């Protein structure tokens, strides 16, 4: 057993893992390699190659002084967070290893994991938004996120302005000016710019670089609101928004990161400056993910690149088949964008087209339902990013709560079927889509 690192000066007693190997002779290791062991030292756990699941509600302190020092970190009395394990509502070994590995994908300074994508989003907003503040957000957003901003935070005196995901730099300037005027009138501040790109379910892309330039031009650096972005559809492989000017990246880890449709979790990545208050809020309300889910995610991250690559290749083949099909009105697939501003954003921000797309069936709800009911391999279920192909009808399911006029404005039509392609054999998937379209 390694010696316990008793540091009497600071009062910390945490056994330190050995330093991670992140480069060999100047060659930087890729995230897919680091997913096998980064952030975990087997010698701290009896040599167990994989981390044990730490099923405990609390952690014993080496001394009362160590306990005091840890609580100073937990409560924010001392910056930098907890230096040791304290209580499972605050932190735990499985969650910390997962946070270390998740951060690798975007070279994030800090990462936090949550019990769901929505608890990550809620904790983020509760941490950064106060009464009379204004949130600027792109549209559409995942319906529960829209509900949270428009119907729940408004109960506590926060307001919002929204803009279409496809907005130009000029439109972004205008929306920020509108938000600043609203905030001044209300006696609050512009608390956050919240983006979702690609948007659920339309796949519309937001120009993150343009929004960062617009925010930098509109605000003094010390009064700048953070730009947060939901990267669930393309992350962590095909889009890395921190590199394009975002400050905080959000994930429903339930999707591609988990990847097997067997868990629910969320993640937040970014600089400590922005994540500090979110960590404090998570400590207070207890939205951290549980150790078992964290362990499952560590297992999933080992194959995330393999799974996403295969799903992306399959989606390209399936979309090539659907593109000119007589029963198909159109496709919202990022791999087939026509030249224009969306293609320009895609080329600058994304390294892959993903495997989730919108399929517009000729007809309306009845035709779309017939198609969905006829699928034999693809499962009729909401969610995305799993090993299996899923199809759903956003207007009647995930976005049912969105008012009809807003659905129409956002392009969430009755003939829109959302498809998430999995890792099955692509010829089998094409055969399934072919026979289901024949039933329309
Ligand atoms: C883009 C996006 N963000 C957030 C969420 C919420 O994630 P969760 O279901 O893990 O709470 C979802 C769920 O579908 C989503 O699609």
Q: What would your notes on this structure say?
A:
- With 440 residues, the protein is α/β, with parallel strands linked by helices.
- It folds into two domains: 210 residues, 3-Layer(aba) Sandwich (Aspartate Aminotransferase, domain 2); 135 residues, Alpha-Beta Complex (Aspartate Aminotransferase, domain 1), CATH 3.90.1150.10.
- The protein contains 14 helices and 14 strands.
- The strands form three sheets. A seven-stranded mixed sheet has the order 3-9-8-7-6-4-5, sandwiched between helices. The chain has a five-stranded mixed sheet with strand order 10-11-14-13-12, with helices on one face.
- Helix 6 crosses helix 7 and helix 10 packs parallel to helix 14.
- The longest helix has 20 residues.
- It is globular, with a radius of gyration of 23 Å.
- The relative contact order is 0.12.
- The N terminus is likely disordered.
- The structure holds pyridoxal-5'-phosphate.
- It comes from Sphingopyxis flava.
- Keywords: Lyase, Pyridoxal phosphate.
Q: What distinguishing features does this structure have?
A:
440 residues; Aspartate Aminotransferase, domain 1; 2 domains; seven-stranded mixed beta sheet; 14 strands; globular; binds pyridoxal-5'-phosphate
SSE layout and pairing:
Elements: E1 23-24, E2 27-28, H1 31-34, H2 64-75, H3 93-104, E3 110-114, H4 117-128, E4 134-139, H5 143-152, E5 159-164, H6 169-186, E6 190-196, H7 208-218, E7 227-230, E8 248-252, E9 266-270, H8 272-285, H9 291-301, H10 304-323, E10 328-332, H11 341-349, E11 356-361, H12 365-374, E12 379-380, E13 390-392, H13 404-410, E14 416-420, H14 426-438
Parallel strand pairs: 4-5, 4-6, 6-7, 7-8, 12-13
Antiparallel strand pairs: 1-2, 3-9, 8-9, 10-11, 11-14, 13-14
The chain binds pyridoxal-5'-phosphate.
């Amino acid at each position: 057993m390694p010696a316990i690192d008793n540091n009497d000066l600071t009062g910390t007693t945490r056994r330190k893992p050995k330093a991670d190997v992140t480069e060999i002779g100047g060659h930087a290791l890729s995230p897919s390699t680091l997913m096998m062991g980064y952030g975990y030292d087997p010698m701290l756990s009896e040599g167990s190659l994989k981390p044990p699941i730490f099923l405990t509600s609390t952690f014993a302190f080496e001394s009362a002084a160590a306990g005091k020092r840890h609580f100073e970190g937990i409560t924010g009395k001392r910056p930098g967070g907890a230096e040791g394990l304290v209580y499972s509502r605050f932190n735990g070994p499985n969650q910390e290893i997962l946070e270390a590995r998740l951060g690798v994908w975007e070279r994030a300074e800090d990462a936090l994991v949550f019990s769901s994508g929505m608890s990550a989003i809620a904790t983020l907003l509760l941490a950064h938004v106060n009464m009379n503040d204004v949130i600027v957000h792109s549209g559409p957003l995942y319906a529960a996120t829209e509900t949270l901003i428009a119907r729940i935070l408004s109960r506590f005196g926060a307001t919002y302005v929204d803009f279409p995901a496809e907005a130009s730099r000029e439109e972004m300037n205008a929306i920020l000016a509108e938000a600043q005027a609203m905030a001044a009138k209300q006696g609050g501040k512009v608390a956050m710019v919240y983006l979702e790109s690609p948007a659920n379910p339309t796949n519309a892309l937001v120009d993150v670089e343009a929004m960062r330039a617009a925010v930098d031009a509109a605000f003094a650096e010390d009064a700048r609101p953070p730009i947060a972005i939901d990267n669930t559809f393309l992350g962590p492989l095909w889009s890395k928004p921190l590199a394009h000017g975002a400050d905080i990246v959000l994930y429903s880890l339930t999707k591609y990161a988990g990847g097997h449709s067997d868990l629910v979790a969320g993640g937040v990545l970014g600089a400590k400056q922005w994540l500090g208050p979110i960590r404090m809020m998570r400590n207070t309300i207890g939205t951290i993910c549980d150790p078992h889910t964290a362990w499952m995610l560590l297992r999933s991250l080992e194959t995330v690149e393999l799974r996403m690559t295969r799903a992306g290749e399959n989606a390209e083949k399936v979309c090539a088949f659907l593109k000119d099909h007589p029963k198909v009105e159109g496709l919202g697939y990022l791999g087939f964008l026509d030249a224009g501003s969306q293609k320009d954003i895609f080329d600058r921000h994304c390294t892959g087209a993903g495997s989730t797309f919108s399929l517009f069936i000729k007809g309306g709800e009845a035709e779309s339902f017939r198609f969905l009911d006829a699928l034999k391999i693809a499962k009729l279920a909401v969610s995305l990013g799993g090993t299996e192909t899923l199809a759903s009808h956003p207007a009647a399911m995930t976005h049912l709560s969105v008012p009809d006029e807003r659905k129409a404005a956002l392009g969430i039509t009755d003939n829109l079927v959302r498809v998430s392609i999995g890792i099955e054999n692509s010829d089998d998937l094409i055969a399934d889509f072919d026979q289901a379209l024949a039933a329309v």
